[in-house]
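Private note to self, pasted from the team thread so I don't lose it. Backbone tokens:
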């Protein structure tokens, strides 16, 4: 057995022993969006620091625990706080929880994030359905030996964000009067925000939003065959499109729209 598989087995066994049952949907909750986990019913909470092979999240605004239970009638395992490449974690570590979700039975993953709007028709506070991504992190979580039992050496990324899930989210948004933007998420390593020149470049190559997460997790989801729904909260306009950027604004915007965000995710989850 590969080292990776052994670690996944140990982690999964620990999480199951803590009371986590079969998972349908893994949820990755981004900056300021973690409150959704508070709405999960019949909760089992497992702090990251107790879980073997799990690192500890260091970012302010990320609680750092798994929350299992029922949300919108589905069995979910939510990550309240995620791991970022810019924290110094390897890409393998950043994406490890996705592999664990899969091992615990998940067939799908809902991934969320806070990001900067590049598309000039976006406004802070908009929610964006992610239709595709650009990996601009400079690396890839699948670099290294491949375990063919987990996934293929050269995964197809043509439908990394499951088209049928996008249709459901759009229908749910329209039925509930939620204005949902759509677009391509471009992932940078961070931790700097981008420069105005990088944002002009991003727009030129087809990005609608930029951020520092999500891309590696979705690559690993594609690798291990998880369906994906991605929803971004546009917390600010990207560099050069507004006076300056700061984390306080990112947090303030997620606070402002979290009600709408939670509504969209819960109703979409119910319809999936
Ligand atoms: N750039 C990168 N990441 C972000 C941004 C941004 O403008 N806003 C929130 N996360």
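Design output:
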């Amino acid at each position: 057995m590969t080292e990776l598989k052994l670690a996944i087995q140990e982690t999964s066994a620990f999480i199951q022993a803590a009371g986590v049952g079969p998972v349908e949907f893994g949820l990755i909750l981004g900056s300021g969006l973690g409150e959704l986990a508070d709405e999960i019913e019949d909760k089992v909470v497992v702090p990251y620091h107790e879980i073997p092979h799990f690192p500890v999240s260091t970012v302010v605004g990320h609680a750092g625990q798994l929350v299992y239970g029922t949300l919108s009638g589905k069995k979910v395992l939510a990550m309240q706080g995620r791991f970022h490449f810019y924290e110094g974690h390897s890409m393998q570590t950043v994406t490890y929880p996705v592999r664990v979700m899969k091992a615990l039975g998940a067939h799908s993953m809902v991934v969320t994030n806070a990001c900067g709007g590049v598309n000039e028709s976006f406004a802070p506070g908009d929610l964006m359905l992610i239709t595709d991504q650009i990996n601009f992190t400079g690396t890839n979580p699948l670099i290294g030996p491949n375990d063919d039992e987990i996934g293929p050496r050269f995964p197809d990324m043509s439908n990394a964000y499951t088209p049928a899930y996008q249709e459901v989210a759009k229908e749910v948004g329209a039925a509930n009067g939620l204005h949902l933007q759509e677009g391509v998420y471009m992932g940078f390593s961070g931790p700097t925000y981008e420069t105005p020149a990088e944002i002009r470049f991003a727009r030129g190559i087809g990005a609608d939003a930029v951020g520092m997460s999500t891309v590696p997790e979705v690559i690993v989801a594609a690798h291990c065959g998880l369906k994906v729904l991605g929803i971004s909260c546009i917390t600010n306009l990207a560099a050069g499109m507004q006076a300056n950027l700061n984390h306080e604004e990112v947090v303030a915007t997620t606070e402002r729209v979290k009600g709408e965000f939670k509504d969209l995710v819960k109703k979409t989850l119910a319809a999936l």
